[in-house]
Amino acid sequence: MKTSGRFSKRLLLLESAIVLYTTAEGFSLARMAVGANFCGSLPWIATMVTAAWSAYGASAAFYYGKARAENTVGGVVYETALLDREN
């Protein structure tokens, strides 16, 4: 179980780095466009950055849910989940 925990944490950290890189490059592209007197709109940059952060938010929510389940006393076991569902 420890290996799975380390893997998911590494995966979230890698995704964090990718999202930060995407955001930095998006700002860089916008800065270059403004510096070059580009007269059009830049919604594709906003879409690219927003999509990356949306995916990151979903991944982080699932990771924190997994962490919560793993850090309860005794963990979440099948019988306990069934008892909660029946009541």
Structural overview:
With 87 residues, the chain is mostly helical. The chain has helices at residues 2-35, 43-70, 78-86. The longest helix has 34 residues, at 2-35. The radius of gyration is 20 Å and the shape is elongated. The model has no long low-confidence stretch (mean pLDDT 82).
Proportion of helical residues: over 70%
Total beta strand runs: 0
The oligomeric state of the chains shown is single chain
Instruction: Estimate the global geometry from the Cα principal axes.
Output: elongated
Biggest sheet statistics: none
SSE order, as H and E? HHH
- Indicate the structural class: mainly alpha
Which stretches of 5+ consecutive residues score pLDDT under 50?
A: none
Radius of gyration: 20 Å
Strand content: under 5%
**What count of structural domains?**
1
Mean pLDDT across every amino acid position: 82
**SS summary, helix count:** 3
